[in-house]
Each structure stands twice: as structure tokens, then as C-alpha cells.
Amino acid sequence: MERMTEPTIEDGASVWRIARDSRVLDVNSSYSYLLWCRDFAATSVVARDGGDGVVGFATGYLRPDRPGTLVIWQIAVDGRRRGRGLAGAMLDHLTARLGARGALRRLETTISAGNDASHRLFLSFAARNAASVEREPLFPAELFPDAHESEHLYRIGPLARPAAPSAELRSPEARRTRSVS
């Protein structure tokens, strides 16, 4: 059973390793993951195994020009844990946490054409939330200075807000930790 928590600086190295080992994500410097786990912890999540090791992560931020919009920058699961619904559980946890704070109306992400797993993940998320999906080209391949597929923007929403936050999501400790099956 995995627990969902906000990342800490100490999680940065594990998050970097999972991104690197995914062989799908653009891997940034290890330094950037340390900064991400410090500066964007409130809009990100890590999944922990029983021994508190990081087995998955989703990093995101609220768009400065659209504060009710969460942009998912990267999401990945350790290779040994893939195919068990953990990525979807992380998205559900993160959006519920931010929704309970009244801070979320929409979700955005970019996905390259060849990333079928991400296409399925975000379309499934939209279906679970009865939200519409708009898809449009955002970054064509020719804009990238290196070889990179075009990235398509997915806009998902509006997302339903919970009527009242559960006791679990109201407590500061519970906001950092939630178990999923």
C-alpha cells in the first residue's frame, strides 16, 4: 500500500532517478528536482512504499496567470510499480488536496504524440472527474533546439470541487499523507 505525501528536499534525488529511469520523460538536472521538491511541494506529490521510499511522483504548479489551473509538469512511477493505477491515484490525491483548499478548477499538461501511457492516464482522469478535455498543439517540434517530438496541450476541466473537505484532507498531517490500495 502506497502513501501519498508532499515531497521534501530529501526526495529530490529519488524523483530524479525515477524520471531518468522512465526513459520517457525529459530528465532535468538533479539540482532542478531538489528545487522542485522545495519550491513546489504544495502542488506536487510523491507516492511512498511501506519503507518510505519514493516509488512515484507528480510535479506541478499553479499557473501564475491562471491560479486555478494546475499544470502537471512531470509524472512517473518506478518501473516495478507501473500498471497498477498509481499514477492515477497520485493525480486524484493531488487534485483532491488542492480542490479541498479551493485552489483548483482546471488541470493542464503537455504530452508528446508518442506517449500513449500519458494520453490514457489523463483521458482516464478526465473521465473519472466528468470533465471535458481540450487538446491542441502547443510546442511544435521545430521550436525545440534539440530533437524533440511536438507537445500537445491538454486542458481538463472544469473539475468539480468537493462540497466539504473530508476530515482527512483538513488536517495538516493528513494533507501530507494518504494511503491508497
Concise overview:
The chain has six helices and eight strands; from the N terminus they run βααβββαβαββααβ. The chain is of the alpha+beta class.
Give the tags.
single chain, about 180 residues, alpha+beta, Aminopeptidase, globular, disordered C terminus
The whole-number mean of residue pLDDT values reads 89
How many β-strands, per DSSP?
8
Structural class: alpha+beta
Give the full name of the CATH homologous superfamily: Gcn5-related N-acetyltransferase (GNAT)
Rg, Å, rounded: 16 Å
CATH topology: Aminopeptidase
Task: Give the helix level as a range of percent.
Answer: 25-40%
Q: Unreliable runs, pLDDT <50, ≥5 residues?
A: 162-181
H/E element order:
EHHEEEHEHEEHHE
Q: Roughly what fraction of the amino acids lie in strands?
A: 25-35%
Cα separation of the termini = 5 Å
